[in-house]
Amino acid sequence: MEKFESLQEEKKKRILDAAIEEFAVNGYDKASTNSIVKKAGISKGILFHYFGSKKNLFLYLFDYCITTLVDRYYPLRENEPEDIFERFIRINIRKMKIVQEEPLMNQLVFSAVTNMPVELKAELTERHSSYSSKYLGEIFENLDTSKFREEIDSEKAIELIMICMDGLSNKYIQKYKDVSMEEILENIEEVMEDFNKYLDILKFGVYKI
Fold it and tell me: How far apart are the C-alpha atoms of 17 and 24, rounded to whole Å?
């Protein structure tokens, strides 16, 4: 991708924006490279000159979107609470903010991971596993598990909580996708009250009574 990387930023952004929108809206299988080049104002030959194939273009975009979203996420981190449930609350607030800022990038990544095209399954599985190992370890480091029951396997408990929180996160993302971040923050107590009802259920099965 060196030839693409060497382009002027304005042209690179125009191509990336057109390709991300096309794949995010239509998915990999139905996405049209003809539509991409038309929106980007380039020829189809040039697009394939840069990326070689539709598959390579999509994998490049997948990596680009994840890297961009992670770069947006980390500056929002402050002093992370050691309690896993409090940390998840902050993570979900940040996630909602980033989804609102970059909806198409989030849609592309989410669709790619949850509904992997057969042609790309091996590459996407490997990439997703690699990114998860790299970033989740940093996000969930220094957690306090002292409140967990002694007979609980703390690693499995954290994994279960993560699965549940991811599901909740997607629920709130859909619920508030058309609401501004400022409005969400203004009503954060109402959001957290609902969120905490689910957390209490998880705590009951994980924390010491």
Answer: 10
